[in-house]
Design goal:
single chain; mainly alpha; two-stranded antiparallel sheet; 21 helices; globular
Length: about 525
């Protein structure tokens, strides 16, 4: 921690949120002659790296200046009246729950912009690509930083249009259908969510998220809480995605360009689970207590469903797409996040927040790797990659093969890596759920979740065996020579590997931030 004044911290958070939007507008302007380099396209891609790099630097300084002795307190706050008639305020702030998400979001966008500078996806104008990427960054960062319910909704919706165009214009096969399915699902969920947000705000007399969390639902009747949890929960569950509202996800991931998949899995899915923690747990605790067992039930079904779908895609002859497989794995992993939230305990919620970050790092890395594999082989079809003797990455491109194996074992929850702690804490939370919840049911959920971890290990190890192992000399095309990890790929992927190891070996770095904030949140601001 470094000593930074409150006004500077306030400026840093406002800078982090606002600069991507300003950068998006600037990306559409003609580049000054001295900055064009070899071409205008190069200049605008460099602009994207510069803006996201500046945002990441500001987020890093914000994290360094954050008071780690008071992570349950909102810091770097800005509170300005925006629409007085509705009492809507531009209210920003971060605590131990949102700060890790802000930093991870800034990191993933910078790495995506850096990767795109060297490997721009085929499609229309790079200007539009960079502008959409920056608008998407603005929407996601604002979602994690705003403290007003209506602003949260606006930020939540801001991401839909840029992600739609990133899939529809720069995606692969069937990109139009996938983009339409993505936006229709999320828009319908958002309409229902808005009704719930208005229900809370109008019945409590304020849209301020800090005040609502401190009130802890005391100003809302149980019926209002039930309706709010049901309506808001549906919208958040679509974005998470929770089974059975997940069907837009595999198509979107399969069709999206590499950086689109990285950001969709690493950032956008976290917006849904963050909403459960930031809004529903503290503002409608009675409604959450009623619906928690159902949420846990859907969560464990998602864990098993996602794992079985991945096993089906991984088997020989299934023509399974690796991007689609990782998308289904996200359904399972996010099931552990929802299970942790549904325990309504500090242990489970901390596990959910940890798993959120771990999934963003690990799955972001996996989508980068599969994108690189598709660039080299021209396909991400598992049967084509495996062939008769295996793609043999260990022999053909050993660094790429080692990174894919690392991503797989991190995703399956190997102790010592980030994927382990979140899932373990979610299961521990299910072992001893909050008072009033049926412990026998939660023990059943815990057992089913434990089975899901075994199935996860099974399909990921099958993928590693089929893609990484084999004799490269016995391949049907022995003359094929694959490029190993390139310097720009190394630069984009190394931070994700390093943070996955750091979070796995030193979980207190993250849990020390989240735990006091979670304790206060579950206690209604009285802890």
């Amino acid at each position: 921690m470094i000593d930074i004044s409150a006004s500077v911290m306030q400026f840093l958070l406002a800078f982090v949120v606002a600069v991507p939007l300003i950068g998006a507008a600037a990306a559409l302007l003609p580049a000054p002659p001295g900055l064009r380099g070899r071409s205008p396209e190069q200049a605008v891609l460099r602009h994207g790296v510069t803006v996201t790099g500046a945002v990441l630097a500001a987020a890093a300084v914000l994290a360094l200046g954050f008071d780690h002795d008071a992570p349950s307190t909102m810091q770097a706050t800005t509170d300005i009246s925006w629409i007085p008639a509705l009492d809507v305020r531009i209210h920003l702030g971060v605590d131990g729950i949102s700060l890790p998400l802000v930093v991870m979001t800034a990191l993933l966008f910078f790495l995506s912009a850096l990767y795109s500078y060297f490997k721009m996806p085929a499609g229309p104008s790079p200007k539009a690509f960079v502008a959409l990427l920056l608008v998407l960054e603005f929407g996601t960062l604002a979602t994690f930083a705003v403290l007003d319910l209506l602003l949260f909704f606006l930020a939540f919706e801001t991401v839909l249009i840029p992600m739609y165009f990133l899939i529809a214009r720069w995606g692969g096969v069937q990109r139009q259908a996938a983009a339409w399915k993505f936006i229709l699902y999320t828009l319908l969920g958002s309409v229902v969510m808005l009704l719930g947000l208005l229900l809370i705000g109008l019945n409590s007399g304020t849209f301020d998220m800090v005040a609502l969390a401190a009130d802890n639902g005391r100003g809302l009747s149980h019926t209002v809480q039930l309706l709010a949890v049901l309506s808001i929960g549906i919208g958040l569950a679509v974005k998470t995605p929770m089974w059975p509202l997940h069907s837009w996800l595999p198509e979107a991931h399969t069709a999206a360009p590499t950086v689109g998949s990285v950001l969709l899995a690493g950032v956008l899915l976290k917006m849904g689970t963050y909403g459960f923690v930031r809004i529903l747990l503290p503002m409608a605790p009675g409604g959450m207590h009623t619906f928690a067992p159902y949420l846990a039930g859907f969560a464990v079904v998602g864990i098993i469903y996602g794992s079985l779908a991945c096993l089906a895609l991984a088997r020989n002859g299934a023509k399974g797409d690796l991007k689609r497989l990782i998308a289904y794995s996200s359904v399972g992993h996010m099931g552990f996040v929802l299970l942790g939230i549904a325990t309504l305990t500090p242990t489970g919620v901390n596990g959910a927040l940890f798993a959120n970050i771990a999934h963003g790092l690990i799955t972001g890395l996996l989508f980068f790797l599969v994108g690189a594999l598709k660039d080299r082989y021209g396909t991400s079809d598992l049967d084509t990659l495996a062939g008769a003797t295996g793609a043999a990455l260990y022999g053909r491109a050993p660094r790429l093969g080692a990174l894919l194996a690392f991503g797989a074992v991190a995703s399956l929850g190997l102790p010592g890596l980030a994927g382990f702690w979140g899932e373990m804490l979610a299961l521990f939370g299910a072992f001893d759920p909050a008072e009033g919840l049926n412990r026998a049911a939660y023990l059943t959920f815990m057992a089913i979740g434990g089975l899901g971890t075994l199935l996860t290990a099974a399909y990921l190890l099958v993928v590693v065996r089929r893609v990484c192992m084999g004799d490269p000399k016995a391949h049907a095309e022995p003359a094929v020579v694959l490029a190993d990890v390139q310097s720009y790929e190394f630069a984009a992927w190394t931070p994700l590997v390093a943070l996955t190891v750091l979070a796995g070996l030193w979980p207190a770095v993250l849990l020390g931030l989240t735990d006091p904030a979670v304790q206060k949140l579950l206690a209604g601001g009285n802890a």
